[in-house]
Amino acid sequence: MQIQVVKSKIHRVTVTGADLNYIGSITIDEALLEASNIIEGEKVQIVNINNGERLETYAIKGPRNTGEITLNGPAARKVHRGDIIIIISYGIMDFEEAKKFKPTLVFPNEKDNSLT
Questions:
Q1: Which among 112, 72, 109, 101 is positioned nearest to 8, based on CA atoms?
Q2: What positions constitute the catalytic site (predicted)?
């Protein structure tokens, strides 16, 4: 049997932008992507702490060390600049493997989304 488990999580980052006219996705600072083990194009779930909204989209790489977290396209209607969100990705694995698996969890500074 295979199950879906948390693979990666960027916990409590501040949204820096919302661009309704972009094609879609979430732009994430490249340093945060690397630290969290999320790759460009990977499906992610966004949980908005401020309003309880949950949505799915895919990650795209933003400029490194800028702290950029921008929701693009229709997702821009679900967040506002300054909202705090959690970004989660999931993996599918065998049940026994999942018992031993340890996800990559990142806890950036909420003020500037930096890793320090």
A1: 101
A2: 25 (schiff-base intermediate with substrate), 58 (proton donor)
Q: Is 94 a member of any domain?
A: yes
75 known member of a binding site: yes
CA angle 108-88-71, nearest 5°?
80
Structural domain for 61, as ranges: 2-106
82 is in an annotated binding site: no
Q: Could you tell me whether strands 17-19 and 25-29 are parallel, antiparallel, or unpaired per DSSP bridges?
A: unpaired
| Catalytic (active-site) positions | 25, 58
pTM of the predicted protein model: 0.96
Whole-angstrom Cα distance, residue 83 to residue 51? 9
Percentage above 90 pLDDT, the chain = 97
- Find out whether 74 is annotated in a ligand binding site: yes
Q: Residue 37: inside a domain, yes or no?
A: yes
- Tell me the C-alpha distance between 79 and 32, whole Å: 19
